Amino acid sequence: MPKAIHTPAFLDEITPFLAVEVFQAARALEAQGKNIIHLEFGEPDFPTPEPVRAAAIRSMERGETRYTHSLGIPELRETICAYHKTKYGTVLDPEQVLVSQGTSFLAYLALLLLLEPGDEVILPDPTYACYANFVRLAHGVPVFVPLRESEGFQLDPAAVKKVITPRTRALMLCSPANPTGVLLRPDVLRDLAALEVPILSDEIYHGLSYGAPEHSILEYTDNAFVLNGYSKYFAMTGWRLGYLVFPKHLRATVMRLHQNVMISASEFVQHAAIAAMTEAVPICERYRAEYDRRRVFLIENLAAIGLPLKYEPSGAFYVFADASHFGQDSLALAMRILTETGVALTPGNDFGPGGEGYLRFSYANSMENIAEALKRLKPFFQRRG
């Protein structure tokens, strides 16, 4: 009998990713022949734009499949800087940009740069399911600030200030937000920057806003790290490429850390990313217009099935609907909905205690599928109304 392998106790604090659990249950039902409509994942249903795919193929044909500079190829980092200058008016140096295998890894890397064991990171509640686990994996402590639907799920700078302690090392933001789809107002970003706590701003949903434009935290402070990438706006989830903008004085430390754990991002994918930023924006803008059409349709029809919203989601591709009047256990509710209707939704408690009782709808699916999902859900909620 082999000796049991010991795992560190802190891993017991890493919570499951409930969206994946719903997805796996949905796949099991599909294997039994049941038709499932997937509204649980935030993955674009559109194809990666053709210019991006073509650039990757050309790059591979040129033999660009080797290690690169550990920060990323200079051409891509220069393209990222030019993109930020055009979009936000911010001036970046290519030497403060790190390209790597997706924003999730980069978020973890940024936290490793910031945290000693026991240090604190402030997070909104609800927020993206994995952020708190990233903090725990970096041996930090997540500290939550509640968001309220009645306040439009805007983060209150005064509430953030109250939880700052001598152990606070960062404030982590996502705007447009997952799961709420809320865009933080410019005055909120400005006031958060004035707190003089380093801000780790996940801007992966930039480009997907419907109304007011999004703003980068770098417009308000240099005391920040920015996460962005190509998965959402550019419909490149499987390409696994993102970038981190960091304070320039950390360049040597960032390079040393990245060289040890990743070496570099895939070369041909980096060339594809250049094409995304320089050639694919018109295509992605058509995608954005279709997301907006779906967003309006979903919001208008949720009230009819018993899930009226008290706020307006104006970014990303999510709607966060309060279903607490149908039961407080959102995971159990999501699983019942999946089993009885064939509609896969993400339970709100995946996003923190403040999400309990909610359901997240992703409209990264066709209008036809969204309409069919609502048709199936209406009698389910009417029976429980």
Overview of the structural elements:
Strand 3 (120-125), helix 5 and strand 4 form a beta-alpha-beta unit. The strands form 3 sheets. The protein has a 7-stranded mixed β-sheet, with helices on both faces. It has a 3-stranded antiparallel β-sheet with strand order 9-12-11. Strands 1-10 form a two-stranded parallel ribbon. The longest helix is centred in the last third of the chain and has 22 residues, at 281-302. The protein is built from 12 helices and 12 strands. The N and C termini lie far apart (55 Å). It folds into 2 domains: 9-47 and 282-384, Aspartate Aminotransferase, domain 1 (Alpha-Beta Complex); 50-279, Type I PLP-dependent aspartate aminotransferase-like (Major domain) (Aspartate Aminotransferase, domain 2, 3-Layer(aba) Sandwich), CATH 3.40.640. It is α/β, with parallel strands linked by helices and 385 residues long. The chain has helices at residues 18-31, 50-61, 74-88, 103-114, 131-137, 157-163, 186-193, 251-261, 267-279, 281-302, 330-341, 367-384; strands spanning 37-38, 97-100, 120-125, 141-146, 168-174, 199-202, 224-229, 242-245, 318-322, 343-344, 346-347, 358-362. Helix 1 packs parallel to helix 11.
Per-chain topology:
Layout: H1 18-31, E1 37-38, H2 50-61, H3 74-88, E2 97-100, H4 103-114, E3 120-125, H5 131-137, E4 141-146, H6 157-163, E5 168-174, H7 186-193, E6 199-202, E7 224-229, E8 242-245, H8 251-261, H9 267-279, H10 281-302, E9 318-322, H11 330-341, E10 343-344, E11 346-347, E12 358-362, H12 367-384
